[in-house]
Structure formats: C-alpha cells, structure tokens
Amino acid sequence: MFTKIKDFTNEQIYKGFLQIIFCLSIVAPLVIDRRLFFPYVSGSNLYFRLIVEALLALWFIFIFLYPKYRPRFNFLTIGVLLYALALTLATIFSVNLILSFWGDAERMLGLFGLLHYFILFIIGATLFRSKKALQILIKVFVLTSFIMVAYGLLQTLDLVSIKLEGNRVTSIIGNAGFLAAYLIFGLFFTIYLLFKEKNRNLKIFYSISAILHLYILYLTGTRGAYLGLAVGVLVSLIIFLKKLNSKKLKQGIIGIILLLVIIYGGLFVYRDAPAVKGNQLLYRLTDLSLESSTIQTRLMSWQWALLGWRDKPVLGYGLGQYSIPFSRYFEAKYYTYSAAKPYFDNAHNVVLEHLASTGVVGLVAYLLLIIAIILGIIKNYQRSKDYKYLAIFSGLLTAYFIQNLFIFDSLPSFLGLVVLLIAVNVKKDDQEEIQVKDSKIKAGKKLMLVPIVFLLFYGFLFSYKNLIIKTYRAFKDEIIGQVLLPYKYDLGIEHLKKSLEYNTIYDFDLRADVANVIYEYYYVSGNQRDEMKDDLFYAASLYEKNITAIPSDTYYNYQAGNILNYAFSIDLDDTASVKAKTYINTALKASPNRPRIYYIKAENLLAEGKLEEAVQAAQKAVELNDTFAESYWILTKVNYMVRDFEAAKIALEKAIDLGYQVSEEGMMQFAGLYNIEQSIDGEIKYYELLIKNGTKNYLVYTTLANRYYELKNKEKAIYYAREALKLNPEVKDQIEGFIESAEKL
C-alpha cells in the first residue's frame, strides 16, 4: 500500500504492514460500543490502546532488524519527550498516584493513556518520513473525519441511532465540543490535500468535504471552536496575502475577509432579533456576554485553577487531579448560573489545567512543545518555500491552541495532534529515504530477537488480558446491570456485582456508578424490597472502599454520607447515621462552600435529634447563595420537621418564587401550612402557589375561580375560569355559564 510492490523486499513489506496498523489507530474515533460504560469514550480508547500496543511490539522488532528506522532526535522529538517527562513527574508526585497514572473511565486520560499518544508519534515519525507517505496518512485521517461529518449530517436528519445533543451535532463522538475540536483538524488537513492533489475528481471531493466540515462544525454550536477556527483561518489568510503574487487573488481574499466580518457584524448587531435569538446556534455564535452562564462558570473554574496552582506551583496536584482545587475553592455563587451538580475534573483551559495539575513544570514543557511545532513549521517552509504548507499548518496550530483555551483534549483531537506532529517532523523528499543503507546485522545479534520477541509477546498478551479485555467485560456487565435492574432485579444486581469482580484499573468509577445505580433504584424510583437495607449498606461500602484509597475526596464522601443517611431513614440503624456524619464532615472539610453538603448534614442532624443544629445547617446553605432556590426547599423541609410552620411557609414561597419546581406530592405535604380547610384566604394563597409552581391541573384554576367568586372579585374569578378553560376545553359549557354568572357580580 505504501511502497511499490515491484521491490517486494522484506523491509518494505514489514514497513508497509506497520503503516497499515498505524492507520488503523487513526480510525479509532469511529469505534464505539454503546453497550459499555461511557460508551463514546471507552470503546474507542480500548480499541486504540490495543492497536498501539500491538504496533509497539511489532515496531520494536522492526527497528531492531532495520536500525535506520530508529528514532532520530531533533527539536520536535525532544520537545515531545520533555513534555512526556513533565507529565511523568507530575504523576509520580501526584496527590493520588493511582488516579494520575491510570486516569478515570470517563476520560481515560491518565499518564498510561497519554503515553500511548507519545508512543504513536515516535513510531509514526519513523514510519512516515517521506512526503508521499505523509500524504497517505493525512488522507486516512481526512477520510475518517469525512465519515464523522457524514454521520453528523444523518444525525441532523434523525436517520441514525445517536441523537442530537439538544440541537447540537455530536456525530459518533457523542460530545459537540470534542467533535468540533476534531473537525478543526479534519478541515485544515482537507484543505491541505485540496492544494496538493492533482486529480480533478479528488479536488472536487476535497472541496465538498471542506464545505461539509465547516457546516457540521457550525452545527456543533461550540463557541470556543468558532473562535479558534476564525483566528486560525485569519492567520492562514494573512500568510497567503503576504506570499501571493497575484493582485487579484489578494483582493479576493481581502474581499472574503471583509464579507465575513460584515456578515458576523450584522448577526451581532441584530443578535436580539427573533430570527437570530430563536436559532440557538446563531445565538450561541453571537452571544459573547460575560454574564452568560457558560462563560461565568468557566471564569470561576479558571479562577479556582489559579488558586490551586498557588498551592502547588511546581508540579501541581497531579495529572488529572484538578477536581481537588475545584472542590477546595468552589463557591456557591456557581449555582446562580448552573444548578447542575458541579464536579469539574478539568479546568476547561489548557494553560490553567496544566498549571493546576502539572504546575509550572508541566506548563513550560507544554509551551515548549508548541514552540517546537512552530519552529518545525517555519524550518520546513524555509526548506521547501511552500507557503501553502506554512499557511495551512500555522492556521491549524493556532485554531487548535485557541479552542483548547475553552475545552480539553480527547482521543479524537489527540490523534489530530499526533498527525500534525508527524507532518511537521517530515523533512525528506520521497527519494531521499531509500538512499540510506543499513549495515548487516550479525547472526549473534539476530539471536537476541528470540527473548525480545518473547518479552514483547508476553507483555502484549498481559495488557490485552488484564487491561483491555477485563475492562471491556466489566464495563459491559455494568451497563447490563443498569438496564436490567428496574425490570429483573436479580439479574441486574448480579451483573452490577459481577462488573466489580474483574479488578480493573477503573474500579473507582465502577464502584461509584454501581453504588449510584443501587441508590437511585430505591431512592429515586421508590422501589421497596426485602434486600433494601443490605443493598444500601453494600452501596455505601463501595464508596467506603474508594474513600480508603482517597480519604479526602469530596464526591466519594458526599455520596457515602448521602446513601447512609437514606439507609438510616428506612431502618433507623444508628451505625448508618454515625458513619454518615463522619463522611459528611470530611466532605465539608474538602469543599466547605457547597450547599448540597449542608443539605445532607441537616438531614443527618435531624436523625440525631439535633433539631436546632439541623436548622442552622439548612440556613447555612441558604447563606452561601441566597438566590439558589433548592436551598430554600431544603430549609422548608427542615423547618417543617422541627414544626416551625411559619418559617417553613416563608421558605417554601421563596423557593417557588426563585423557580424551584416542587412535585405534586411535595406540595400536598405542605397544604396544611395554609389551613385550607378553614381559611379561604389560606386556600387561595395555597392554590396560587400551586399555579406559580407550574401545575397544569385545571381544577386548581376552577377552585380559585370559585373562591374569588365567593369574595365577589369578578375580575379574578373570570380570569381563573378562562385559564381553566385553556387547560380543559371539555368543560366549556360549565365555564361559560360560570363566566356569565360572574359578570353579573
């Protein structure tokens, strides 16, 4: 495939075979298995690791037999190795060596996973030394990216099983932001091939592919990628302008830039117009307000990353350990912009993430790598005078770096980076490579291959069995258990427990998820079984195993305390309450400004009979952020349980005023606060509160219409009657009769 078949030398056959295996790693983003835990991450990563590890074993034999293919050190490869060394040091001195090395199941970006990308680059740098070979590699990447784009198009038409994320395209990757980062590489590589290709039909294909890449990238709705792409394209166009000799082409490029600026300026000026504001993607494109929820939560995350770096300036908290400073410096004002449970594992900014996780050592190494890439691009241009190469790859690097100031890398974008590194590393013309000759390997040295092959084969099988297959089976059993538990409890719980018997490198995540599934089966779904107490204590014990390894983890301690609180509520086992208290206090120590930890603390204090302290804990949650509706709802329940009914009523009304949606059952529980049986004013206030809470029960409106009729308030009686009619047109005759009667008041 990669060499001329007429030669048929062992060297070329072996090299071609390795190049094919290498290209199989590039298609990893297309590999998903939705039967697995974190399906859009785990399937592709397990496949990728399998390919890279097999490739590594075969490559070692190859460079032993053919020494001329051994890695050559230059500024770029040294930059890559220094960066790998910096990440290794940050892992060794991490606050949690195990997590930093293996990573978690959701990202698979521990040092172990990242080393696969470093290895892939080193191998690729030896296998793709010529421009012809490089072009074939880029074609494989572009074809893979085009398939991703095609799937995205089908996704917009609702013709595939993976659905849109709201109205944002995710394609096979399953995440709009990660897809956008990947498509930036696909777009620039496609444009590169468009300029290099001489075949007319292929030029047409690349042109169409580039347009479709742009379209799907737009449909991802990822503002960081929009900004990165805009600046990257601008850099490319500026270089083209400086290098082009044609005045007409220069004028055309300037005209395109001005046209795009005018179009965007028009959209920005009219961003509040219905046509723009009503289109979520256009609105995201023009919404640059610093007050938007996404920007505000990112700014907070960045601030907490800097505070974390101040704690550990040299090597940071450890690779992948950003969640620790995030929890430590978390402020409840976060909930003003997002009610989601905030447990960020990444700063969503490549510079600040490096500072917090790997310290100044990691950041300097990363920036040196970026500088090495820039110098490599410049040197290649100076050698070839190919301004198209300079423009495209400079624009690509710029776009990649800027978009990474708002997100973080995943497998697809890392693969794009590896291909970019290989492209920058290529310095030879096609004929130069075959001029280098190997000295013959002596028979004694060839005998050394026997133990080397044995060790490589054993190492590969060990990894395949223990790190890939076991993980695959555990992830699959976990999902099967999740699916089966609500319908076939015995089979479901069997698979959930079985997923933990494999002893994988991702047991922290598996234990946490199995515990959550069991807890939600009872607490959220309201199921009741004889095994309930044992199951809840089992779920708590899984978190306790995690806590044994990571004692101060906020999330693990919070969830352990939460589950044990619930276990106490159904069985009144004092052991559960006492253990819960310990975990809750540890969680608060690790993250003192999280209102939700105070919720379960209040619950725990109620269980101990410490009523006044329980109220104080609930009030503390409110004080942390007095605009967060959920805190008032918790305060309502606590005040009600300590029989301070007036305070409960005030808190309930405040919660609903701030937008908290109370369930129908929850509202019925507090009907007694308003004395609706004896007080018409209390009844009116309660039913109006139900409406503010969002009820769609037309009987609530008819009740209010009747009560205002009794009070001879004609306007409100008629208003509520008409609202009832909107909800239930079948009572039209009765409502019209009521309104006719009310108008006579």
Quick structural summary:
With about 750 residues, the protein is an all-alpha fold. It has helices at about 10-25, 40-65, 75-90, 95-100, 110-125, 130-155, 175-195, 200-220, 225-245, 245-270, 275, 280-285, 295-310, 325-330, 350-385, 385-405, 410-425, 445, 450-485, 490-500, 505-525, 530-550, 555-570, 575-590, 595-605, 610-625, 630-640, 645-655, 665-670, 680-690, 700-710, 715-725, 730-740. The N and C termini lie far apart (about 90 Å).
Question: How would you summarize the topology of this molecule?
Answer:
Blueprint: H1 10-26, H2 39-65, H3 75-92, H4 97-102, H5 111-127, H6 131-156, H7 176-196, H8 200-219, H9 223-243, H10 247-269, H11 274-277, H12 280-286, H13 293-311, H14 323-329, H15 350-384, H16 387-403, H17 411-425, H18 443-447, H19 449-484, H20 489-498, H21 507-523, H22 532-549, H23 554-571, H24 574-590, H25 595-607, H26 611-624, H27 629-641, H28 645-657, H29 664-669, H30 680-692, H31 698-710, H32 714-727, H33 732-742
Helix pairs in contact: 1-2, 1-5, 2-5, 2-19, 3-5, 3-15, 5-17, 6-7, 6-8, 6-17, 7-8, 7-16, 7-17, 9-10, 9-16, 13-14, 13-15, 15-16, 19-20, 19-21, 21-22, 21-23, 22-23, 23-24, 23-25, 24-25, 25-26, 25-27, 26-27, 27-28, 30-31, 31-32, 32-33
